[in-house]
Structures are given as structure tokens and as C-alpha cells.
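User: Earlier you gave me the apo prediction for this protein. Now I'd like the version with flavin mononucleotide bound, so I can compare the two side by side. Same sequence as before, with the ligand SMILES added.
Assistant: Got it. Here's the input I'm using:
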Amino acid sequence: MSMTISTAFTELVGCRVPIQQAGMGAASTPELALAVSQAGGFGMLAAAADDLPAEVDAMLASSAGLPFGVNFLMPFFDRAMLDAVAPRVPLVEFYWSDPDPVLVGVAHEGSALAAWQVGSVDEARAAADAGCDLIVAQGIEAGGHVRGTLGLLPLLDGVLDAVAVPIVAAGGIGTARGVAAVLAAGASAARIGTRFAATAESGAHPAYKHALVAASATDTVVSETYSEWWPDAPHRALRSAVDVANALDDEFVGDVGGAGDPFPIPRFAVRPPNRATRGRIDAMALYAGQSVGAVTEIAPAADVVRELVEGAEKLLTATLGSTR
Ligand SMILES: Cc1cc2nc3c(=O)[nH]c(=O)nc-3n(C[C@H](O)[C@H](O)[C@H](O)COP(=O)(O)O)c2cc1C
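And here is the structure of the complex with flavin mononucleotide:
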């Protein structure tokens, strides 16, 4: 794909199109991050990977200098891992804790850019004050854990007024229309989670991907159902999965295979099913945003990037053209 849309985000991070793939635990495989970065967007690895340094090695070896980042989910934060990767990756990003200037400083000392995903205007101000180079504003339409209480557009309005750094809009964006809307509103990029979770390169379990294809925009719900290992944290998931989990009465609903002994999965585990998970996939944490209505097939990630960017460019050109 040769299309380029230049924004403050693309200029800062050095990619060609204003699409950031969300860090999504085991769904964000190196294959997914690489495919997104090669398509001109910005791929993300998850710090919680089984072997993050090896994933970073693989990305550095195959990305030919294309930018990518690592997402740290703060309830599972490992400071030694941040120290290890900050000097080696273009961007590190944090989610689900108060923005911390010390951690931003570690990123910068390692020569990485620092980003924080936030759910409120106050949190965006704190991220800017902490020295973040860019901020992800997450509306409640988002799949996975939901940090704030505002829909994306009101949140974006407040955040764009409050801080000067580039803003990435997240939550419920699954179509070119959504991408065009947030760019027109002043965001510098769109962050896409659910649509990438359903791509060929994603590490999500195949049955999870199929459930995303089958679901409509109205089929998600915010709850605290999947609270084992991470309590008091609202998250948006497929309602069907929440209903099945609540209807079962087993202590465990499956396990994760791998090199060692199978690891049992409690019924309300926070962990979404990956390729190595076995058991009642339909009862597990099938995180999905309101963007899930845009998931109609399991496509290669590059096709998703192309669809979103080409469509957004046409819409923005048509809108601007009609106002001249
Ligand atoms: C399966 C899944 C896992 C997620 N895991 C994380 C995560 O580990 N770290 C993080 O910062 N955000 C995570 N998120 C939230 C995303 O960063 C983002 O806010 C969200 O996906 C945007 O909404 P969308 O899913 O409608 O595109 C996750 C989202 C999904 C769908």
C-alpha cells in the first residue's frame, strides 16, 4: 500500500498512515504488529507476552526500521521489562494507572517515545504533565477494559482542548467513517482494537474470532464479570460470553496448553482465549468494542488498514470538497 496520510501522529512516530493497532495481550502477536507496521500503520506488542525480549528481537529483525511500540498494562507491570525494552523500541505505552513521570522518564532515557491511554480529561492533563509525547483518549465504546465514563467524541473534545500533544482516538472505531470522523475532529490517529483482534494474524482463539464476526454492534456489554486476577475493572465484552459464564457453575472452564503443564482457566478469568486455550471458549473473556459490528470476516491485517485508510481519505476529501 502506498497511501500516505500525514498527521502529527505519523510525523512523531514515523509511520505512513494514522492507524495505531491497540496492544491486546495475547491477541497482539508479533505477526499482527508486523503486518500493521508494514501496511503503514503502527503495530504494538504486549508487555505481558511470554517472551517479550524475543518478540522485540523478531520485530527488529523483520520490520526493517518500521516503527512499533510495546503496551504495558499496569496491573501486571514489570519494571525490569520496561528497563529492558525502552532502549530498544520506538515507543512504550502505559494503561490503567495514574500517569507517572518516572516511567515516562525511563522511556525517554531509553530513547523511546512515551504514551499513556487515558479515559478522562483530567487523566489526559496528568499524562501531558508527566511528559508523555502522545496520549490515547479511550471512549467507553472500547473493547477490553474501559477506563472512563465518557463516549469518545465528548472525551476527545475535552482532551483536545486540554492538552497540546498529538491525540490518538480509541473506542468503537471499526470503519473508515469512524477514522474520518476522529481525524476531522482533531485526533491525529485512530486506535483500532477489536477489528485487529479478528484478523488472520491475531493470536485470539479461532472461535473468539468467529464470535466477533457473528456479533453486531449492540451485542457487547460493560461489566465486571471477568475479574479473576484483575478485580474492580470494568470491561466491554460480548454479552453472549458473559451470559454463558454466568450460567455455568464450574470453577474452571478450560486450560492453556503449552510447553509445561496445562494452566487452568478460572470461569471468570480476565484472560481472553488465545490459540493455545482449550475448553469453553464461549464462556471466556471475549472482549469486544462497539466496533464489532464492522467485523464481517477474518481478514489479513493489511486489508483492514487499507480499507480504513483509503475509505477515510475518500470521505475526508469529499467532505472538504463539498464545503469549498
Ligand atoms: C481483546 C482486547 C484486548 C485488549 N487489551 C488491552 C491491553 O492489554 N492494553 C491496553 O492498553 N488496551 C487493551 N485493550 C483496549 C484497547 O487499547 C482499545 O482501547 C480498544 O480496543 C479500542 O476500542 P475498539 O476495540 O472498539 O477498537 C484491549 C482491547 C481488546 C478488544
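For your comparison, keep in mind: Residues 205 and 274 are 4 Å apart (CA to CA).
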